[in-house]
Amino acid sequence: MPSDASAVSSAAAPAADHARLKSGTPEFRKVTRAMFVGGFSVFAMLHGAQPLMPMFSQEFGLSPASASGVVSVATAALAFALIPASILADRLGRKPIMVGGLALVALFTLISAASEGFSQLLFWRALQGMVLAGVPAVAMAYLSEEVEPSSLGYAMGLYIAGNSMGGMSGRLVASALGDMASWRTVMVTLGVFGMCASVMFLKSVPRSRNFAPTPGPWRDLLGTLRRDAAAHLSDPGLRWLFALGFLIMGCFTSTYNYLAYHLAEAPFHLRPALAGAVFMVYLVGPVAATWTGRLADKLGRRQVMWITMLLMLVGVLVTLISHLAAIVVGVVLLTFGFFASHSVVSSWVGRRASHARGLASALYLTFYYLGAGVLGWASGLAWGLDGWSGVAGVLALCLLAGVGIALHLRRIPPPVAA
């Protein structure tokens, strides 16, 4: 998936001043390889069900909006579990939460293959999203604590690349296997890979050396959390940034949710494997995020954000042209704009927050994944009314609102340099 993670776990007091991992050493390579595989596997399992939605519609007699539940319930559960997972990691440690989350999501993926009905499948998908939160909620905090500053950017880049490549590969593998076998085979394949990844992760990632559990009673910790969350939600700039996260992820997920249905219709009649090949446009993600990040550093986030949102809007409108090449171009524009927008907003949240930045990032990701769940389902209702034109119309309105929010943010004075 996209850079579906952030440093949502607030840093605890260091246990001791242990030597940190340095780029070029065998231990650094071992850890970053494991983090790449961990991020790759969890997001492959999360997003692998998305291209299978037409198969669920056919087998269980579902509308596209109902079939989108396999994506919506998982992302919504992930959204609500991010902050609790970060709190547990502050108390129980980084590695136990990450290993447990990785192993459990693989286990639940395997079990979901035996679902006797769609409701049962949704139950297991919700559990997958809930336990999956243990990886993105903790991984970046772990790397920040264990890797020396001069090597941290490289380590973070590898982890984020694993997330993006996992989201793309999970969709591609599911599309290809779904063309030859059942969705149950896809789930088993993804689950087995996840189990292997969890074993490698357990053996390769050392226990935290520069972290100590947060002291004090749970009641005091939760009280501080409530106060900090209220402060972030009362900040006018952060509120609008959280709203942008909701919109960009919701529109991005909705596009890929219903694109397979659109390409299976006349005049395209594409098989699942060919329709799934559209996910290859994910490869523009790292380029978009890196290039836009540099541009935002040079020109300012206020000057760039509205342009990236406008690019997403143009991409959606181009997909309304009934020609396969035009649809691919439109999806490329939307995907580029999405990764660019996510890069700008997520960094802007960190700059805007004057304190408790980890919690601010957690709140941003909560709204971000809620957008995937809520808009991913709601746009399916538009599909039922007017097919792809209905979906594109709803997304265009949402993105137009996003452009307006981005322009409004230019007029809000920053409490700190933002």
From TrEMBL:
This is MFS transporter, YNFM family, putative membrane transport protein. GO terms for cellular component: plasma membrane. It comes from the Bacteria. Keywords: Cell membrane, Membrane, Transmembrane, Transmembrane helix, Transport. GO terms for molecular function: transmembrane transporter activity. Residues 27-416 form the Major facilitator superfamily (MFS) profile domain. The chain crosses the membrane at residues 31-49, 69-89, 96-115, 121-143, 155-177, 183-202, 240-261, 273-292, 304-321, 327-350, 362-385, 391-409. The keyword Chaperone does not apply. Pfam families: MFS_1. PANTHER family: BLL2771 PROTEIN, INNER MEMBRANE TRANSPORT PROTEIN YNFM. It is a multi-pass membrane protein. Its main location: membrane. InterPro entries: MFS (IPR011701), MFS_dom (IPR020846), MFS_trans_sf (IPR036259), Sugar_transporter_CS (IPR005829). It is found in: Cell membrane. Belongs to the major facilitator superfamily.
